[in-house]
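Journal club side-thread
Mid-discussion, someone asked how the predicted structure for our own chain would compare to the paper's figures. Pasting it here so we can look after the session.
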Amino acid sequence: MDAMSTIRDRIIVAATEVTSESGWSAVTMARLAERVGTSRQTVYNEIGSKPLLAEAMILTELARFLEVVGAAFDAEPTDVVAAVRRACRDVLVTAEGNPLLHAVVSASHGADTDLLPLLTTHAESLLAGAKAVIRERVAAYEIGLAGTHLDAAIDMVVRVVLSHVMQPSASPADTADDIAWIASR
């Protein structure tokens, strides 16, 4: 953690670490205060509540994934299908090594049933955020789709990628090739 990190940032990192190590049920404000080296009251003042902490964790992870998407589109400025392929692959590779995501996936398989609501209760804001970034990125390409058809295509790609993030069925490269092929249609 760099010197510029705020206490709030440090609390979110600590919560992610505890969740990844021990599960969401092990996350307490007292435990976070101890890890960060502050008081429990400061944790409450910075975060508010455990549900708000969950939201902050999810939004922090979403921002990381969207940075990966942005970099992929920047690397493919003239070919939207190549950009989609790269973004899908890079997101799936990033997901493979994400400890919080692994904790969430484990929760969906019975390991920590309190953790699954992290994604399910925030699914709409996650989807909306991801779709908005993709819509903004796709606008730079001449693709011949507009309005509801473009929205439907973006929704499909985002939902399929998220499905593969949660439950991969092939390698990131193979999955990205498949999703890019669908997107090209």
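Post-session note: The chain has a mean pLDDT of 87.
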